Amino acid sequence: MRSRDVIWSASLVIGHVFSQSCPSYSSYSQTRNPPLSSGAYKLAYQRPSPECRTFNSSLIEDAITRMKDAIYDEDLYRLFENTFPNTLDTAVKWRGVAANNTEEELAFIITGDINAMWIRDSANQIAPYKTVMKSKTDDIASVFRGTINLQARYLIISPYCNAFQPPPESKMPPQSNGGIYSVTPSYDRNIVFTCNFELDDFGGFLQLSHDYYAATGDLDFFGKFQWIPAIQSIMAASEAMRKPTYGPDGEWVRPEYTFQSQTMTSAGTLANNGIGNPVNYTGLVRSPFRPSDDSATYDFQIPANMMLARYLESTSKIMDQLPNAPKGLSRQMKDMAADIREAIKQWGTVKAPNGQKIFAYEVDGFGGQNLMDDANIPSLLSAPFLGYLDKNDTIYRNTRAFILSRANPWWCAGPYINAIGSPHIKPGAAWPMSSIMRAMTTDDDVEIISAVKEVLRTTDGYGLIHESVNSFDTSDWTRQWFTWANGLFGQMMMDLADRKPHILKESFQPFFIQKARTA
Questions:
Q1: What does 46-68 look like in DSSP terms, one character per residue?
Q2: Positive or negative torsion for Cα 488, 494, 496, 499
Q3: 247 has a pLDDT exceeding 90
Q4: C-beta of residue 99 within 8 angstroms of C-beta of residue 7
Q5: What average pLDDT does the segment 252-277 reach?
Q6: For residues 180 and 198, is the Cβ–Cβ distance under 8 A?
């Protein structure tokens, strides 16, 4: 579908009209609001009043109530109570329907403290609610459909872009991010907020589609509206981003995507006048930017390719069943997924300094390999969470041992938290998201309890998950309102309630040892 075929005009707005008295959550979340939890951490209560929440779901409220009996520790329950509903409470900025079809639901999900919709973030923000969704008639199902539909629209118009402005139907004005860019393909700044091409955006859209179908079985939804054209757009862009830097005769191949910006950091732009570093043909798909929004060292990011392969496989089964699916599209999805899996075996599996086989974080097909991991998901740590492989896979276990150690340059260790960080912030700034993912990708009770304790003691009393925390100083953190991490913590707690319910019966209170006074 061409971008001019997507209609951008006024629509019927449905949903919630907010009281003028509702505080900005950016301000609200910077206060330790009462009542404080009764445990040693005395965590704030950070939920807006019901009339100020951006979406009220009876399913979510029922789940929060049920979990009160499942969780013994008062502080841990308060953290769950704040975080699990945080996207619905604060980030469903607008819901409505498309101008040209009142049956096409739309939902604009902001990332938290930034008033724009990231494809990847919005998928991850909504995904935790699959844990309670059973039917297409459930209240939360409407948010899934609205998010998928709006993501599909954006992916058709600007598939190489990662974050978007509110749809015109919302009557919300677009905002400038203040950046100066030169990008090909060009884009409309009234539609696009930023245009970093991050392969995991495709994976996020496919994953959310998979999650909705797996929970509801609502096949008809995918044959309506713009889901099929969005898949075609993803496939075309992915194929274009598999091209090598040089053709068979050695001639330079002009890339489909280039990006330059005026920035204070090398991670905010691409090298070689916006082209990026050269890549060989491997069968992998380039990702010039990482899930952190930082530029890659080598463009073939292995976790993003894992995610794309895994969810191309699962959503191809949806495409198989649609009577209006273009002939051969499902087969193309399966073939690309198989090609990527084979390429990861050939190019993404490397030898660590200790001689063991591990997955590289990034490669270029010329022998360049980046041995690290980043907390942002998809990560190497998250491979079993994504469903790409089993947590007992030998190469994954080797990789896990490598990245959860000093061998990983972004391993941040300290007295309060030991977790993977990210070049997006700085060395020593551990991301609680990594501790959460560590708990979700192991069956070891001791490791899970340790990871949960780390997250609980690093909220600085605010009762919300920060982006990063100084591993030696819990009062030194970034982002007080980060709905992606909040939702992931809630999802982890729901997972533990099913998989390890006995752990939630533990006390997570700190032990204080008072030194004896000397005479």
A1: -PPPGGG-S---HHHHHHHHHHH
A2: negative
A3: yes
A4: yes
A5: 93
A6: no
Residues 6+ apart with CB under 8 A from 500: 445, 448
Count H helices and E strands in the chain, helices first.
17, 17
Residues written for the chain: 519
Cβ-based burial of 461 (10 A; exposed 0-12, middle 13-18, buried ≥19):
middle
Q: Look at the alpha carbons of 306, 482, 87, 103 in this order and tell me if their dihedral is positive or negative.
A: negative
Q: Three-class SS string for 121-152?
A: HHHHHHHHHHHCCCCCCCCCHHHHHHHHHHHH
**pLDDT tens figures, 181-239:** 999 999 999 999 999 999 999 999 999 999 999 999 999 999 999 999 999 999 999 99
pTM listed for this prediction = 0.94
**Nearest alpha carbon to residue 261 among 295, 237, 292, 291:** 295
Compute the Cα dihedral for 186, 189, 195, 200 and give only its sign: negative
The string of DSSP letters for 70-121 reads H---HHHHHHHHHHTTHHHHHTEEEEEEETTEEEEEEEEE--BSSSSEEHHH
CA distances from 29 to 32, 364, 388, 420 (A): 7, 42, 36, 25
Q: How far apart are CA 284 and CA 306, in angstroms?
A: 10
Helix (H, G, I), strand (E, B) or coil at 209: helix
Give the model's pLDDT for residue 266: 84
Sign of the alpha-carbon dihedral angle for 402, 407, 412, 418: positive
What is the 8-class DSSP label of residue 348? I
The answer to whether the CB of 292 falls within 8 A of the CB of 354 is no
Crossing angle, helix 74-83 and helix 483-499, to 10 degrees? Answer: 130
Q: Is 519 exposed, middle or buried (0-12, 13-18, 19+ CB in 10 A)?
A: exposed
* Closest listed residue to residue 147, CA positions, set 133, 161, 167: 167
Amino acid, res. 94: W
Q: Is the pLDDT of residue 448 over 50?
A: yes
Is residue 8's pLDDT more than 80? Answer: no
**How far apart are alpha carbons 129 and 107 in whole angstroms?**
15
- In whole angstroms, give the CA distance from residue 291 to residue 477: 20
| 3-class DSSP assignment, residue 314 | helix
Two tokens, residue 415: 């007295």
CB 93 within 8 A of CB 146: no
Which tokens is 52 given? 């100020």
Q: Catalogue the E-assigned strands of 288-397.
A: 300-301, 349-351, 357-359, 362-363, 369-370
What is the per-residue pLDDT for 113?
A: 75
